[in-house]
Every structure is written in C-alpha cells, then in structure tokens.
C-alpha cells in the first residue's frame, strides 16, 4: 500500500509539549496519544485508491494496547517493589534489640558465662554430641545430649571451663548418628540485632557479635 509521506512536525511539537507534563517514554497515556495522532495523520494521508484495510488497522491498535498494558504493568510492579521495601525496613527496625537465630556455629555467651548454641537434626538420632571447639579447631569439651528427635534443639555449656582465651570465640559442631549411620545436622547461633541497613537493594541485619547478614538468612526470634 502506498502512503504519502507524513509531515510529523506538528506531532513532534505536541510530543515536546507533552514531555513538559511527564515522562513521555513511560507514561502509557502519552504513548497512546502519540499513536492515535499518528494513526489519524496516516489515515488523512493514505492513498484513496489503496486505503488501509481493517485488519492492518486492528493489528496496529492491538500493538499499542499491548505496549500500553506492559507499561502499566511495569508501573504497578515498581509501586509494589517500593511498598515491599518499606515493609521490610519497618520489620527490620522492629527487630532491633531482639535476639535472633542465624546460620553459624559460634557460641552465644551471656553475662553469667553460660554459652548457648542451637542445631537442627535432619532425622532422629540415637546418639547426639556437641563438640566445643577452640578458635584453632581443637576440641575443648564434649556435651553428651543422648537421643534426640528430628528438628531444632539447643544446649548450654559452662564457659568457665575454658581459660585459654575469650569464650565468645568458641565454636561448636554436632556429631549425631542412628542405626543407619551419621545424621545430617546444621548449626545456628544466637545474637542480638543492633542495627539494620541495605546492601544491593536487600535489607541487612547488624548483629551484636559484629556480623552483618542478609535479612533472608534470619531464621527465628528467641
């Protein structure tokens, strides 16, 4: 189909005027307005002997509707992301001063010198032992917990038994087994939240022990 070249100077002027009211590249209404102006101009300048058929016009209108829908979806998603970030910030602020569990194997030592740790068993164990480790990895003491069910457990240990340094540097590991062999386990450490922040668009928690962890690694409040 032959179409006479269109003079778009008036449309360009209109687009420039529209840009003063908002960002025309992201405003769905502005994009739709430009499309309608171009469509009217195209109809006015088409070859009377070979006019645009209905299918072609419908196709163009469907395309602009699709683009407009995508732009509106992007704006909605942006708004939801901002709301989610605000909710996370509020949640993080409310956790300041609370003790939480995160992945780790460091003993939490209180004012009375009692060390505490948490662990999760992947299956029921007939024998469960906690090995308290020095910073160099040597076994300082062993806590025998006997048989334990699948799930989360905790233990305490008297840190006065350790006289070679700062007990807060002690770590622990779990040795558990049943009739089928070793039982999988993971260790958790307790620490108080003293602050929050952001890293690469994600909320972080600053812990009393000096660690900064992503909010996603926080397990429970204790």
Description:
Residues 106-162 form the FlgD/Vpr Ig-like domain. Belongs to the FlgD family. With 222 residues, the protein is of the alpha+beta class. It has two domains: 9-94, no CATH class; 99-191, Sandwich (Immunoglobulin-like), CATH 2.60.40.4070. The chain is 31% helix and 33% strand. It contains three helices and twelve strands, in the order αααββββββββββββ. Strands 1, 2, 3, 6, 9, 10, 11 and 12 form an eight-stranded antiparallel beta sheet that branches. It has a four-stranded antiparallel beta sheet with strand order 5-4-7-8, with no helix packed on it. It is elongated, with a radius of gyration of 33 Å. It starts with 8 loop residues before the first helix and ends with a strand. The relative contact order is 0.15. Residues 1-22 have low confidence and may be disordered.
């Amino acid at each position: 189909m032959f179409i006479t070249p269109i003079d778009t100077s008036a449309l360009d002027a209109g687009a420039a005027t529209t840009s003063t009211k908002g960002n025309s590249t992201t405003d769905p209404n502005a994009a739709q307005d430009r499309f309608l102006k171009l469509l009217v101009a195209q109809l006015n300048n088409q070859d009377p002997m070979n006019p645009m058929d209905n299918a072609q016009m419908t196709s163009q209108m469907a395309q602009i509707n699709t683009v407009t829908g995508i732009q509106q979806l992007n704006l909605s998603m942006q708004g939801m992301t901002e709301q989610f970030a605000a909710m996370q910030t509020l949640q993080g602020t409310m956790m300041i001063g609370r003790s939480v569990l995160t992945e780790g194997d460091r003993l939490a030592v209180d004012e009375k010198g009692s060390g505490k740790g948490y662990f999760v068993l992947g299956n029921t164990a007939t024998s469960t032992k906690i090995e308290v480790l020095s910073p160099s990895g040597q076994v300082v003491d062993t806590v025998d917990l006997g048989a334990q069910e699948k799930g989360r457990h905790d233990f305490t240990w008297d840190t006065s038994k350790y006289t070679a340094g700062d007990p807060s540097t002690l770590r622990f590991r779990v040795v558990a087994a049943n009739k089928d062999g070793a039982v999988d386990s993971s260790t958790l450490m307790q620490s108080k939240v003293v602050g929050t922040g952001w890293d690469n668009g994600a909320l972080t928690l600053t812990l009393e022990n000096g660690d900064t962890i992503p909010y996603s690694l926080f397990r429970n409040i204790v």
